[in-house]
Specification:
The structure holds two protein chains of two kinds.
Chain A (H helix, E strand, L loop, with lengths): L1 H10 L11 H12 L14 H21 L9 H10 L3 H11 L3 H11 L1
Helix pairs in contact in A: 3-6
Chain B lengths: L3 H9 L4 H24 L2 H17 L10 H24 L8 H6 L8 H11 L3 H12 L4 H8 L3 H22 L1
Helix pairs in contact in B: 1-2, 2-3, 2-4, 3-4, 4-8, 7-9
Classes of the chains: A mainly alpha, B mainly alpha.
């Protein structure tokens, strides 16, 4: 390229810039001193299979206990009409009983199971 | 002295990242400094840009996939950082643009060892748009291949050749007007 030759003939390709003495000897240390510690990327922690199994057993245990305790409140021997009557004419005793069941905790379930055996 | 491939392997392994990064700074720090210095012109600005570029590279190490060369990756960060600084400086200079001359400020700079003509060359280069300016510096002074510049700037070789051609033409016209 003609213009490029004109520039290089006239000006050359010399680097006219300089740096303070010893600059490059200290550059690496200066850069490294400013670097923070790297934080490792957040890792997705999966629940171990054994914990999943334990959680499933607990859920099964609680639901079975609740189901075993429930028939007292809706005894099938009373027939469907009786249930309707109960629904239509609730009394305080039913509400108390239902509230008790709704507020069941583990201790109550254990107590209930023990009392059945 | 380690080669680019060895440094790349160290950077990709969390256990050797810091050691690998130190090797990269030692290996490429000077070369990056000169690339940046030719764009920003003063030592203080070049020093700031290089330090910031390394810090950015360190913080963005996860984005380095190992597909490109370490030097190319670092160059891209450093050149972008240098161009950002130029834009900020240009914004600051608009107020007193008439009084500002690149050549006279370079001649007064203790870290410029050039002649008046060399200072004028830097002034001519400083008047070019960002891409033309960067391509001219990398091609004319560092004699870099278009393919390497292309990887560095993320621009096609054809566009780079055109930019270089226009830059050379503008600079030669700048001097012919003064002859």
């Amino acid at each position: 390229m003609e213009e490029e030759k004109y520039i290089s003939d006239k000006l050359g390709r010399r680097n006219p810039f300089t740096v303070p003495e010893g600059y490059f000897e200290h550059l690496t240390a200066q850069v490294m001193d400013k670097l923070p510690e790297r934080r490792q990327k957040a890792r997705t922690v999966w629940m171990r299979p054994v914990w999943w199994a334990a959680a499933a057993v607990c859920a099964l245990f609680v639901s079975t206990a609740a189901w075993l305790a429930w028939p007292q409140a809706s005894d099938p021997s009373q027939g469907p009409m009786a249930e309707v009557v109960v629904q239509q004419q609730p009394d305080d005793a039913f509400f108390d009983e239902a509230a008790d069941y709704m507020m069941l905790d583990n201790q109550d379930i254990y107590a209930c199971l023990v009392s059945e055996y | 002295m380690m080669d680019d491939q060895q440094i790349r392997q160290m950077l990709l392994d969390p256990k050797t990242q810091r050691q690998g990064f130190e090797a990269a700074v030692r290996q490429y720090g000077e070369q990056l400094y000169w690339q940046v210095r030719k764009i920003v012109l003063t030592h203080d600005d070049a020093d700031d840009v290089v330090q910031n570029a390394f810090l950015k590279a360190w913080n963005a190490l996860d984005t380095f996939g190992g597909d490109s060369k370490v030097f190319t990756w670092l160059s891209r960060i450093a050149i972008n950082e240098a161009l950002d600084l130029l834009r900020k400086n240009k914004h600051r200079l608009t107020v007193s643009e008439d009084e500002y001359s690149v050549a006279s400020s370079l001649l007064a700079d203790p870290y410029f060892d050039g002649t008046e003509t060399e200072a004028l060359l830097q002034e001519a280069i400083a008047q070019l748009p960002d891409v033309q300016r960067t391509v001219f510096q990398l091609r004319y002074f560092d004699e870099m291949k278009y393919s390497d510049i292309s990887h560095m700037l993320g621009t096609s070789e054809g566009a780079l050749k055109a930019s270089y051609h226009i830059a050379v033409k503008k600079i030669s016209e700048f001097f012919k007007l003064r002859d």
